[in-house]
Amino acid sequence: MLLEEFIRGIPKAELHLHIEGTFEPELMFEIAKRNEKKINYSNVQELKNAYKFNNLQEFLDIYYAGANVLIEEQDFYDLTWAYLKKIKAQHVIHTEIFFDPQTHTDRGVSFDTVIRGVHRALEDGSEQLGISYKLIMSFLRHLDEASAFKTLEQAMPYKDWIVGVGLDSSELGNPPSKFKNVFTKAREEGFLLTAHAGEEGPAEYIWEALDVLNVIRIDHGNRCLDDTALVTELAKRQIPLTLCPLSNLELQVIKNLKDYPLKKMMEHHLLVTLNSDDPAYFGGYMTENYVQVARALNLSKAEIVILVKNSFKASWLTAEEKAQKLAIVDNYANVN
Ligand code: ADE
Ligand code: ZN
Description:
Elements: H1 3-9, E1 12-18, H2 25-34, H3 44-49, H4 56-67, H5 73-89, E2 92-99, H6 101-105, H7 111-129, E3 132-140, H8 145-155, E4 164-168, H9 180-188, E5 192-197, H10 203-211, E6 217-220, H11 228-237, E7 240-243, H12 245-250, H13 262-267, E8 271-274, H14 279-282, H15 286-297, H16 301-314, H17 319-335
Parallel strand pairs: 1-2, 2-3, 3-4, 4-5, 5-6, 6-7, 7-8
Helix pairs in contact: 1-15, 5-7, 16-17
The structure holds adenine and zinc ion.
Zinc ion (ZN) is lined by residues 16, 18, 168, 196, 219, 277.
């Protein structure tokens, strides 16, 4: 079996995915039309042509503008359902997705509208597509801690639907320590914690996410390689890093996938996973991320299996669920 075919078919888990980042231009135009909202581009092609980014902020500006057309619960359902159908075709069997409530509540769409639409689609995906899921609420770090606290408050009636909280948006100048109190409160309330750190920001931000916020997972974390003591700590504690290769390429975090330090990270025994981040904007979902990295770094089937298994190990499934999914992966690897 060709490696690409092997990658396409292997049962995978995704751990770093922003639901707003799955908004494909075609669906965006459709939803804009029914909500009578204007998009700054006259057609799908013109919008796609704008997807050229020099850094994270240039992407975020377009990403937040795109999310503006989402108004009704059904819009959030359709967005999430489209993503689930896409990953079903790519043999993703478990996904842990972020949603950014403040992107919507700040423009007058209620928290309830957003979460009900997303959650209903996830439930349907679990029942009809067999995709298990976890929902993670992410705070926007360019906003203040008071706004994050307000969002945490809004989430309380939905505690059973949200397993964890994260931290995303503009990293530089917005260190994890800015959110110390709200993460402490979220932890007391029983939420699991993760944070984007070391995507564009320095290794110091990863230390802060670990030591000040007490996260148990790091989203991205590429910059850990600048700090030997940090690499040792991450490896010792087996803190998962949710890497996003095509995102890093499109946001100019790396120049070329051939320079992607994945093998180096694996040699350091880091618990690395591959993910798509914002696939509608970065040119690929899970399969494309794996395939392009595998091609660039000449990965073997055995290395692909390690990466896929890392994702299930790093997931927020129970030990029993992990064992069950890992057995499915082993079975696939043994017969292919
Ligand atoms: N929000 C969506 N994608 C993001 C990324 N890659 N980094 C920070 N915030 C984000
Ligand atoms: Zn992200």
